[in-house]
Amino acid sequence: MLRVAGVQDTWWDVLPEQVRQLPAELARIDAFLDDERFIAPWRAVFAERLGRSSAPVETLLRLLYLKHRYQLGYETLCREVADSLSWRRFCRIPLASPVPHPTTLIKLMRRSGAQTVEQLNPVLLGKPAEDKLLRCRKLRIDTTVIEADIDHPTDANLLEHGVRKIGRLVRQIKAAGAARRTRFRDRSRSAGRRLKDISRTLRRRTGKALGEIDRITGEIATLARATLRDVAAVERNARRALGKRPSGRLTHLVNELDETVAGTRRLLEQTASRLAGIRTIPDRLVSLADPDARPIRKGKPQHPTQFGYTALVAEDERGFIVDHQMHSGNPPDAPQLVPAVERATVLTGRPPGTVVADRGFGTATNDQALNVLGVQRVGLQRAGKPGKAYEHSRPFRRMRNWRVGIEARISHLKRSFGFRRTRLRRLTGAQTWAGLWIFAYNLQRVTVLSR
C-alpha cells in the first residue's frame, strides 16, 4: 500500500534550533522535493489501499539521494542516517522510529524497476524548465561505457563458473525436495583444479604456454559437456516434481537452472569456435551472472576492451543532463542523435539553438534532420581529416572546443556519482542504476544554480 508521508514527530521541536537546522544543500533539496509530481511515478507501483504499508515515498526519495550523492551502500546508508540527526530530519524519519531496513529499500527499488526511475528525471528537469533555470540553448552529446560488475572474462573461467553454478543449483533443488534420487556428479572441483593449472601455466611466459592453455580449456569444456548430460535428468525430474507439488522457491531454482544450462551451452559453442581459430565472435556472452553485458571497444589505449553497457549523455550549457539512454553492446552513435535532440525539445518546449557531437555522430543525414527540427547551429565533425572550409571557421572551432567539455562532465559523473560501474545486473538494472545517479546529479545541480 502506498504511503506518501510518514507520521509527524513533535520531538524535533524539543531540540535546539541549531540542531534542527539542516545544511544549506539539504535544505534546498528538501524544499525542492516537496512536489506532488515526484510522488506520481510511484502510484502505478503500489496500490492505494491494499497490501502492507510501504516506506513513505518522501523518505525513500531522500534516502536514494543520499545514497547516490555520497556513493553509499544500503547498509552504510541506513547506519549513517540512524547516526545523524540532520540526515534523519532530512529524510523525515521520527526520532522514535527506526530507519528502514536495507532489505526493505532493496525490495522497494526492485519492485519499482527502471520505468519508475526513468520518470523521475523528466519530472525533476520540468521544474527548472518552468522557472527558466533550464533553457537548453546549447546541447552537447557523447557516449561512454558503464562497466558491468563482472570479472575479466575468459573461456575457461566462464565454463568453470557454469559448472560450479549448475552444481550449486542441483544441490539446492535436491534440498528443496525434488529429484533427490537422480544421480548427478558435481565436477566443480575438477574444473577448479584445471583453472588453477592455467594460472600456473601463465607464469611461464613462454611460447608453449598458449598451446597449454588451449589444451586445459578443452578439458574444462569436456567437463562442462558431461555436466550438461547429467543435469538433463535432474531438470526433467524437478519439472515433474514441480507439477505435482507447486513451490515458489523450487520454480525459481528450476528456471535459474534452465537459464544457466542455456548459457553454458552458448559458452561451449563460443569456446569451440575460439579453439578452432575463430577469434571474432559476434554478440559474445561474457558473463553468466550478467548475460546482457557485452564487450565494447571504444579505441582507448588504456582500456582497449571494456565489458558492460553503452550510455548516451546529453548536457546543456548549464550542466544539466537533459537526456541519457542505456544500450546493451555498442550500437552506432549516429542514429541516436536525432531522438536525443527530440527528447530535449519536448522537455524544454523548443529545439536547442546549438547541437554539437563528435565524429561518431557526424553524418549528412543528421545535419539535415537537425535543420528540419529547427537547430540553427550544427557542429558535427566528419570522419577523417577536416577538409571542409566550414570546419576551419571560427564558429565551428568554438563549438568544437565547447564540445570537449562533455568529456570532463562524464569523468565527473564517474568519479563523484558512481557512473563508472553498475552494481545492478542486466540491462534493466543498469538503466535503474544510471537513472538514480543522474537523478542525484541533476538534483545537486539544481541546488548549485538556485543559490
How do you describe this structure in short?
The protein has helices spanning 17-20, 24-32, 40-43, 57-69, 74-83, 85-90, 102-130, 155-175, 188-202, 208-244, 248-275, 337-348, 364-373, 394-403, 405-416, 426-449, and strands at residues 138-147, 294-296, 306-316, 321-328, 354-357, 377-380. Strands 1, 2, 3, 4, 5 and 6 form a 6-stranded mixed beta sheet that branches. The chain contains 16 helices and 6 strands.
Question: Would you kindly provide a written description of the structure presented here, covering whatever features stand out?
Answer:
- There is one protein chain.
- Helix content is 54%, strand content 9%.
- It has 16 helices and six strands.
- Strands 1, 2, 3, 4, 5 and 6 form a six-stranded mixed β-sheet that branches.
- Helix 10 packs antiparallel against helix 11.
- The longest helix is centred in the middle third of the chain and has 37 residues, at 208-244.
- The radius of gyration is 26 Å and the shape is globular.
